[in-house]
Each structure stands twice: as C-alpha cells, then as structure tokens.
Amino acid sequence: MLARLARLSAWFGLVLLTLLAAAFGFVQTGFAKSRLETMLERSLSSETRTVEVEGLGGLLPFSVRLDKLRLADGEGVWLEVEEAKIDLEPVALLAGRVELRSAGAARVALHRLPPGGEQAAAPGALPELPAPPESLPPLRLERLELPRVELGSAVLGRALVLAVEGRAGVEPDGRRAAAAFQLRRTDEP
Q1: Is the pTM of this model over 0.90?
Q2: Spatial CA neighbour of 167 closest among 100, 106, 108, 86
Q3: Which residues lie closer than 8 Å to 73 by C-beta, 6 or more apart?
Q4: Of 11, 97, 125, 187, which sees the most CB atoms within 10 A?
C-alpha cells in the first residue's frame, strides 16, 4: 500500500513537472508573446488611456525585453519607452524575493505629466510625490541603466535630456528602502 502511494505521488509529481515545462515552453513561442502583448494592452488601457506594447521577447518571465511601450490619452502620447529590459534572478523568485540583476531602457521620453498628475506650480519645480505606503515587498535592483531620458518642457518647465544610472532595494521587513541614483545631463554641458 505504501509503495503504491509512493508511485502515485511520483507519477503525479512527474505529470505536474511536465505540465509546468510545457507551459514554460509555450510562453516562449511567438504566438504566446503576441497574445501577452494584447493582454497587456487591454488590461492597462482604459476609456481615457491607450497603451501600446510592441516586441515582447526574451526568456519569459526571467529576462523580459520590450521593443516599445507607449501611453497616450486624448491629447496624444505622453510616455514612450524603447528597448526596455528586465533581468530577474530566478532562484530569488523561488525564495519569495524579487531581485533584478538589471533593468533599463535605451530611451525613455516623458513628454508631459500623465493625465490627472499634479502639474508643477512654477517652471522648474518638481511635482509633489504621493505619500509612501506603509510597507513594500522585498526588492533589490542591482543596476538601473537609462542612457537617454527625455523630459519635455511641460514636465519641469524646460526640456532636457538625462542619463540615469543607479540601484535600489527594500529591506525584507518592507519598512526601509534605499536608493542611489546618478543623474547626468547630456543635452548641454
């Protein structure tokens, strides 16, 4: 009886592993990635916001690549992201942590603040940030690379182009976060 239960458990485990491997393999196909793009567009879009997602690729869900992401409203496109990438640490996910080895994009263009966002009170003033939540999930970002961040004149009162590098993390208790970023203006000395 015990041997039969052990064989049944092993068979069930093998079937489950096979199903997981098949699902992982399916997600890597062009068809599945195209369907995921469509699902992302539908779930992020609303009556007042349109989201376009193009070129989802990489070894999902551990190494995600995205050719283009655009957010628009009735006034037009307000955010564009090109050649975005996120590389996760798979072993950390199994332990319940989110560890990103790297994240970035070749180009991020914020033409204006999003609809409903607080406009700067005076040219050059930063928008007011929302209140932080009580706690955050454990997270570590080892390397952020944004070589071209374009901010339109509607964002800070003057158009500028930056390069951004940095790292960030949230302690396991979710109560403390730390970040270090280097911003370098690249459109003028």
Answers
A1: no
A2: 100
A3: 48, 49, 50, 114, 115
A4: 97
